[in-house]
Amino acid sequence: MKKLIVIALLLGSTILAEFNQDVLTLGPLDQKYNLDKVEAGQYIDTKSGEKVELISIIDKKTNIFVIGESHTNYDCHAFQRDFIEALYNQNPNIVVGFEFFNREHNAILEKWRLGEISEEELLKETGWYTRKSFNYGYTKMIMDFIQKHQIKVIGLNVSRDILRTISRQGFEQLSKEDQNLFPTINIPNPEHEYFIKGIFGDFAVNNPDKFTNIYTAQKCWDVVMAESMREFLNQKEYKNHTGVIIAGSNHVAYKLGIPFRYNKANKKTNITTIMPVLVEEAEESDENPMAKMTKKIDPHGMPGMSQNPSSTFSRGIADIVFGAKELKQEYFADFGATVKEEEGMIVVSKINDDSPALKNGLAEGDQILAIDGVEITSVEQFYTIVAAKNWDDELEIKINKKVTF
Q1: Three-class SS string for the chain?
Q2: What is the pLDDT of residue 336?
Q3: Can you give the pTM of this predicted structure?
Q4: Domains detected in the chain
């Protein structure tokens, strides 16, 4: 049964309780017991505890900057763009590596950098959306600056198939060739294991064997991203370049992931870590009197002091912390449907809870025929069209409805 539906991309969100990873007693000994606070738009040097300007973060002695991110936070990516611009203005010899591109994509990235292929071709050839990466708009603001100034860009990751094999079957199931991708994997890091175990919580405690494989995959993930940049900068042409690694915050926090593995492979490397701390805006309303009070009373109870929304963090989390505003909804619209190719058709494989797709009647098994009058013939095409939409935009989707009796 064919059906035409119009979907407005209105926000639907689910609040999840999360393990607070920003206030742990981990990281460098001289900072791990110190708590501090940051406001949105501020930069804090955790060694001194002082607010600093962006330009002062550009330490000329640093060989590698490792920047954590919340993948769908706009301020995180805006900071990355602004930081790379400031670094480039001081030193144009830089190499930027991304978690969401693989090593095998380097030749494609080079063609794109030189203007030999379009952005659309870049996304298709790297499988950006078929690998279920986040909306490219977040990364685009950085990539546009990179291409404009011809900055070298590389992929840091390896195929998820390798990491999936490790997490499900164990490291020993890899071929010797694939095992060699992870040279520092056997160096223990108890703080890192504790950190990852805390993220997985009850699952890690109740399923120790499964967690062991998952944790090994996490270590391998860190190792290969560190190794990708290290090996690249070891090339004669790039020995005097500064590296910038962009990855999820769990790979950077407390210097336990990528920074740890990089230093184990090269102890002489001077690494500066930069982490976002998300700052939720206070709501002022009759139902939330505390929001009003925080404008008049500071955390130490001193009346009359202006208090902007801030978040607390451990100064062991990174060398530099920046406050990133936590939006009530993602900056780019989230349609809430996953699709796959099946027997030459593009069909819905998953619908997210409380999503625009679910609210408008889309269901698993429905075939996507067209969007806004454009025939859909590939998974990449579906995601590319949907990703270009904003909240409150409308999608006219023609579907072949799956009906069961």
Answers
A1: CEEEEEEECCCCCCCCCCCCCCCCCCCCCCCCCCEEEEECCCEEECCCCEECCHHHHCCCCCCEEEEEECCCCHHHHHHHHHHHHHHHHHCCCEEEEEEEEEHHHHHHHHHHHCCCCCHHHHHHHCCCCCCCCCCHHHHHHHHHHHHHCCCEEEEEECCHHHHHHHHHHCHHHCCHHHHCCCCCCCCCCHHHHHHHHHHHCHHHHHCHHHHHHHHHHHHHHHHHHHHHHHHHHCCHHHCCCEEEEEEEHHHCHHHCCHHHHHHHHCCCCCEEEEEEEEEECCCCECCEHHHHHCCCECCCCCECCCCCCEEEEECCCCCEEEEEEECCCCCCCCCCEEEEEECCEEEEEEECCCCHHHHCCCCCCCEEEEECCEECCCHHHHHHHHHCCCCCCEEEEEEECCCCC
A2: 87
A3: 0.86
A4: 2-15+333-400 (2.30.42.10), 35-278 (3.40.50.11550)
